[in-house]
Design goal:
- By secondary structure, the protein is an alpha/beta fold.
- The protein is 40% helix and 14% strand.
- The strands form two sheets. The protein has a six-stranded parallel sheet, sandwiched between helices. Strands 1-2-3-4 form a four-stranded parallel sheet.
- The two termini are 37 Å apart.
């Protein structure tokens, strides 16, 4: 209880988390010994740089799904405010120092199975431990959306694009704004709705004003889950321009609702998406990303193409449901731990 003042909202959550891991190590040991438990599966916020129970990782240790080793180049971060520039600079340094990070190397050594969110994370694990690593995301398709009650926008002139998430700089909302601004020169009827709130909002609003896009870009702030479902159900296209992401709920929601997706290829969740129902943008440089996002928007102005891609997304969606994800993990654990699911 004495440490909970760190855990207000997201402020201080990393500090609280690492204190919690240290203080609960005795509980992990007592619980495993008392109940004759031999498998320790450590679920985290998805960051490999954070602590793990020292007792737990000496047992049969399953780690993840984890990530947190993805970085963003200065070509993108130079547009961020001071706070986010510093955060990404520190992250780049932390990744460079991985070979000297004894805690990280110890966890990689002790782990029997490492579930990596992205190829980037997997490839940053020391080669002598990489054979323990497999790709595994922590998001799936939610089959509970009511597709039947979804608004049919096929006869509307306006092209409604939605992008969702906490307004953090690395999530690439500035890239969405700039690409919509470019696309609007050819498509006067395009509109972008940005759903979410966060510390980067002021910069994004300023950019919107600077580009003269106030009438074509809307900020909703935080919304309820029912409002979110309504907004994404009424959209024509879902966009995700996150620059480092192992899994994105809204992207899988686009599949559940039969919406074409435009996203950056972060080597994580994007392996579940194909050109049949998504436009995957490689990340080479900032201008290229904005140009490719713009081209994707213009391409999806074609209603027939949107229908075709949306229909394909609906068809493949069940392959990536939570039930299927459970079977996939069960098979993996059965192979590694020799258990019967």
């Amino acid at each position: 209880k004495w440490a909970r003042f760190w855990k207000k909202g997201l402020r201080g959550v990393r500090t609280y988390y690492n204190i919690w891991q240290t203080c609960t190590n005795g509980i992990v040991r007592q619980t495993m010994q008392k109940n004759d438990i031999h498998v320790f599966h450590h679920l985290t916020y998805g960051n490999m740089l954070w602590k793990v129970s020292s007792y737990g990782q000496k047992q049969f240790f399953i780690w993840g799904p984890v990530g947190g080793l993805e970085t963003i180049s200065e070509e993108f971060t130079c547009y961020y405010d001071r706070k986010w520039k510093l955060i990404e600079h520190v992250r780049r340094l932390a990744v460079k120092m991985l070979p000297l990070n004894l805690g990280f190397q110890k966890r990689c050594k002790n782990a029997d199975l490492i579930l990596c969110k992205t190829d980037i994370t997997k490839n940053l694990i020391s080669e002598k431990y990489r054979n323990k690593a497999v790709l595994q995301t922590d998001v799936a398709v939610d089959r509970q959306f009511n597709v039947e009650n979804m608004l049919d926008n096929s006869d509307k002139e306006e092209l409604n694009i939605i992008t969702v998430g906490r307004l953090d700089a690395w999530r690439g909302f500035d890239l969405c704004i700039e690409s919509v601004a470019k696309a609007s020169k050819k498509l006067s009827y395009v509109h972008l709705t940005i759903v979410g709130d966060g510390s980067d909002k002021a910069r994004l609003v300023e950019l919107t004003n600077k580009l003269g896009m106030n009438d074509k870009i809307s900020f909703t702030g935080k919304v309820s889950i029912s409002q979110y479902k309504e907004l994404i159900g009424n959209a024509d296209v879902v966009m995700n321009a996150s620059l480092k992401e192992g899994a994105v709920t809204v992207s899988f929601d686009s599949m559940a609702l039969g919406k074409p997706l435009i996203c950056l290829d972060t080597t994580g969740y994007t392996r579940y998406f194909s050109p049949e129902y998504a436009i995957l943008i490689p990340i080479h440089n900032r201008k290229q990303v904005i140009d490719d996002l713009t081209d994707g928007i213009i391409k999806l102005a074609d209603r027939n193409l949107r229908k075709q891609m949306g229909h394909k997304a609906l068809i493949v969606g069940p392959q990536f449901s939570w039930a299927k994800r459970g079977e996939e993990i069960c098979d993996l654990f059965s192979e590694k731990i020799k258990i019967k699911c």
